[in-house]
Task: inverse folding
């Protein structure tokens, strides 16, 4: 029987511009949900919007607050770049705007189209400070490793680690590794079907993955070789040694060739 495999580290870092954008989007979504923020923007001091989370249908107060921000962007950018503004809270009839610096070249804007109790503002500002640290870490494309996270408070460390897991979950199916594994699985299933018929395919595949202690999504070349060995064993049990030998001599080389074609 094939031995159990180690647990897969289900984390992913923003290795491309697309992944970085998605990771920034996840963090803004988390910020929005954590403090019931109506809209949040992450911008550069040059006025560029790097990422945002804004409702598709804006209420009149939300719309007025967003227009206030747009109208004051040159002034906000000037304060951040020349006056080293760290954080600002502005109260209006429509609600509250919080502006927090993110590193030296960016800032975050939180829009609350509702009244904020004074006692709640301290918590919101604490969360904004942590979010600014997280966004700056991501924006600088720093790795999410113990060494890189050293010096941050425990909440920031946990959030960054959690973001890498969220990215894994939300974008893993788009990775080359996942797509390769799905195609290999489809190919192996077809070879089993050609050998024993469609009725036993799922049974053989399920038993073989159970022996490995993993699933198709998290396979690598070594695991696929062990998987195929298990498949050959199952075919021998169901179809006899001659059938298993024929599968091993014809289908196994094809599967191995398929694996190499993805290198």
Result:
């Amino acid at each position: 029987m094939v031995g159990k495999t180690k647990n897969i580290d289900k984390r992913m870092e923003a290795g491309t511009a697309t992944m970085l954008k998605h990771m920034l989007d996840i963090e803004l979504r988390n910020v929005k949900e954590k403090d019931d923020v109506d809209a949040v923007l992450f911008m550069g001091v040059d006025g560029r919007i790097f990422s945002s989370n804004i409702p598709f249908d804006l209420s009149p107060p939300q719309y007025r607050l967003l227009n206030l921000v747009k109208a004051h962007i040159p002034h906000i950018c000037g304060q951040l770049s020349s006056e080293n503004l760290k954080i600002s809270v502005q109260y209006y009839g429509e609600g509250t705007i919080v502006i927090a610096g993110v590193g030296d070249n960016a800032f975050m804007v939180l829009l609350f189209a509702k009244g904020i109790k004074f006692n709640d503002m301290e918590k919101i500002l604490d969360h904004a400070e942590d979010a600014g640290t997280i966004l700056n870490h991501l924006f600088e494309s720093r790795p999410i490793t113990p060494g890189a996270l050293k010096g941050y408070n425990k909440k920031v460390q946990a959030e960054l680690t959690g973001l890498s897991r969220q990215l894994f979950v939300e974008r893993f199916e788009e990775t080359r590794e996942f797509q390769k594994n799905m195609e290999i699985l489809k190919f192996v299933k077809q070879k089993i079907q050609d050998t024993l018929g469609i009725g036993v395919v799922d049974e053989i595949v399920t038993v073989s993955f159970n022996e490995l202690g993993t699933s198709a999504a998290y396979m690598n070349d070594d695991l696929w070789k062990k998987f195929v060995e298990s498949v050959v064993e199952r075919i021998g049990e169901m179809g006899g040694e001659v059938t298993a030998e024929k599968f091993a001599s014809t289908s196994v080389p094809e599967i191995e060739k398929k694996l190499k074609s993805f290198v």
Q: What stands out?
A: The chain has nine helices and five strands. The beta strands are 39-44, 49-53, 87-91, 96-102, 106-112. The two ends are 28 Å apart (CA to CA).
